[in-house]
Amino acid sequence: MTRYVSSCFITLVVLFLWRVEDIADACRCLPQHPQQAFCNAEIVIRAKVVGKKAVSNAIKYDIEQIKMFKGCDQVIHAIFTYTTSCSVTLEINKEYLFTGKLKTGRMSITLCGYNPPWEDLSAAQKNSLTHRYQSGCDCKIIHCTSLPCPISTSDTCLWTYLGTDNGQNLACIKRQDGSCAWYKGIGLPKK
């Protein structure tokens, strides 16, 4: 009986170690506010996906750029997502907001980025792309999952999931006194 138990134990260990590589490759992303994604990205564009092709260790999506919100002066014609557990799957003939990095002239995106379909963005989010997010890139957005969450500095906005839109429609912008506050789109943020 002990030989049977021992062989079962060894089999379980081998199976576990075999799966550790898959677990280690899992994509882990912390939730980020749309403004954080905007500020952390090198390039932010609105584009329509028009084609897809596998190239080397990546998927190349051909796009038609509609608008550049942040980035370089060049028009982006393709977006790459590398074939890892963090690769992004996009639909052909659909418009997206892409936040990504520029490496050797190629825009790349990952699952940890913020790349929602354009139609899923609210009017407030679309407005903030051109009018609010950039002005708040000097502010820090602290993600809080349970209260209380103390703010240690005045250049911080506390982001909680309280409320119906989870704060997705707010922008954290710098006020005249140098402090940061959430902006709802009506007047300037108050102290």
UniProtKB/TrEMBL annotation:
GO biological process: negative regulation of membrane protein ectodomain proteolysis; response to cytokine; response to hormone
Pfam family, one: TIMP
InterPro entries named among the record's database cross-references: Netrin_domain, TIMP, TIMP-like_OB-fold, TIMP_C, TIMP_CS
Keyword check for Secreted: yes
Gene Ontology MF term list: metal ion binding; metalloendopeptidase inhibitor activity; protease binding
Family indicated by similarity: Belongs to the protease inhibitor I35 (TIMP) family.
Protein name in UniProt: Metalloproteinase inhibitor 2
Organism: Oncorhynchus mykiss (Rainbow trout)
